Amino acid sequence: MKKRNYKSKMKAYWAWVVLFLSLCIAPVRAYAAFNSMSEFDKVEVSDSVVTVYNVGDLMASVKDNATIILMPGTYNLSEWLRGDDVQSQDSYTSKKKGAFRIWEGAALCNVKNLTLLSADATEPAEIVSESAACSVLSLANCTNIRLQGLRMGHILEQGTCSGSVIYVESGKDIFIDDCDLYGCGAYGISTYRSNNIHVSGGRIHDCSYGCIEINETKDVEFLHTQFHDCREYTMLDLWGGSSALFIGCSFRRLEGNMASVNQYYENNDYKMYFVNCAFDHSALYSLVENPNMGDSIRILD
């Protein structure tokens, strides 16, 4: 009888051990993946690492020098914005630091050295918004921000959005790695007066106005990113002396002009370089036959 009770106790003990490990293994793997990055790829400093399971904890964890690991699930920023304790700002130029409501959208302001990392690459954490007028997530005056392995988009009917998926204003050293950015957002990524925007892997697709809108922004780089199924206006829209480099990217099923020169700025000396990129016939034709592009485009094998 004693042996039988001992065996049953041991079975219960090991069952609890297995349950505990199953709850811990995803955050541990994500943390290990973060630590295995090269020094070039890492955000400079992470004093704290926190794992979150819901949108409230996600936004409450935003601070300098932090890594936030998002467990699989949907993080609806519109739900967070409806909360009574959310702080509001009037504009992106505020000097306050943290997560705020700006108009109808969610914004991270004046934050440095922050990583948002999906815990599971096979089941990415998804950040969404119900607001058609605002971007899913805005980064205002932020430095050294990394978004990695996330799905992001508006959960609205196609063609109803005027906000982009990610909006960066006065940002520097923004890294968007292996993210799936989808419409109905106007653009996958929009920037204004920013520097050093690096996008690696991932997809930008099904957006309502185009793929990207880059305004007065230097040193924008896309590496092995897929652009597909965006529509309507200009796919790669560079304004105000912006420049962008595309390496190993693919462009397919894009409905609209691939690129255009914007005439509203005096300085239209922008450049786009394409290195080892793949185009379907329509995209390539739109680039090489556009009479307004002049010397602004270089396509290299």
Concise account of the structure shown:
This protein is of the alpha/beta class and 301 residues long.
Give structural attributes.
single chain; 301 residues; alpha/beta; Pectate Lyase C-like; ten-stranded parallel beta sheet; nine-stranded mixed beta sheet; 4 helices; 18% helix
And the CATH topology?
Pectate Lyase C-like
**Structural class determined from secondary elements:** alpha/beta
Main β-sheet: number of strands, strand sense, barrel status?
10 strands, parallel
The proportion of strand residues reads 35-45%
Descriptive notes:
This protein is of the alpha/beta class and 301 residues long. The chain has a single domain (38-300), classed as 3 Solenoid (Pectate Lyase C-like), CATH 2.160.20. 18% of the residues lie in helices and 41% in strands. The chain has four helices and 27 strands. It has helices spanning 2-35, 55-60, 77-81, 281-288; strands at 48-52, 66-70, 74-76, 88-89, 98-102, 105-109, 112-118, 126-129, 137-140, 143-148, 151-154, 166-169, 172-177, 180-182, 189-192, 195-200, 203-205, 212-215, 218-223, 226-228, 231-239, 243-247, 250-252, 255-261, 271-275, 278-279, 297-300. The strands form three sheets. A ten-stranded parallel sheet has the order 1-2-7-10-13-16-19-22-25-27. It has a nine-stranded mixed sheet with strand order 4-5-6-9-12-15-18-21-24. A hairpin with a 2-residue loop joins strand 5 and strand 6 (105-109).
